C-alpha cells in the first residue's frame, strides 16, 4: 500500500515537472515550483528526487516509456506503429514541446540531459535501422542500407515536431510523415 502510494506520488511529480518544464524550460523550472504544484515542500520533493537533474532524467525516461509503450509489438518496432506514434504526438503538444525544448537545451556541454540524449539517440538510430530492416530487408528502394537511412528517419520525426510546434496550422505532422513513408517506399503504394 505504501509502495503504491509512493509510485502514485512519483508519477504525480513527474507530470507536474513536465508541465513546469513545458511552461518555463529546464533552466527556468525550479524544484520549488514543481513541489508547489503537487502540494509538497521542496524538502518533501527531494525525498522522491534528490536533485533537479535526477528529476529531469526521470521526466525524460517517463516520456520515452509513454512513447515506446505503443510503438513495439512482439517482433520489435514497426514502421506503421511509428506512424501511429506521430499521430499520437500530434495530440499532446505540451509533451512534444517539453521534449523539443529539452533536446535543444541539451546541446550545451554542461546540460544535465546531454548524456541522456546522446545515449538515447544512439539507441533510437539502432531501433530505426531495425524498423527499416524489418520493412525493407538490407536495402531500401533508394539503395540505402537501414543504418544509413536510420538517422534520416529520426531527423524527419524530430524535425517535423519542431516545424509543427512553430506553426501547427501550416504543418500537418501526421500527413507529412505519411508522405515521407511514401518516399521511403520509392513512391510505390504501401501494402
UniProtKB/TrEMBL annotation:
Occurrences of domain HTH tetR-type (ranges): 7-67
InterPro entries: BetI_C, Homeodomain-like_sf, HTH-type_TetR-like_transc_reg, HTH_TetR, Tet_transcr_reg_TetR-rel_C_sf
Keyword field contains Repressor: yes
Keyword terms, alphabetized: DNA-binding, Repressor, Transcription, Transcription regulation
Gene3D superfamilies in UniProt: Tetracycline Repressor, domain 2
DNA-binding region: 30-49
Keyword Transmembrane helix: no
Protein name as catalogued: TetR/AcrR family transcriptional regulator
Species this chain originates from: Streptomyces narbonensis
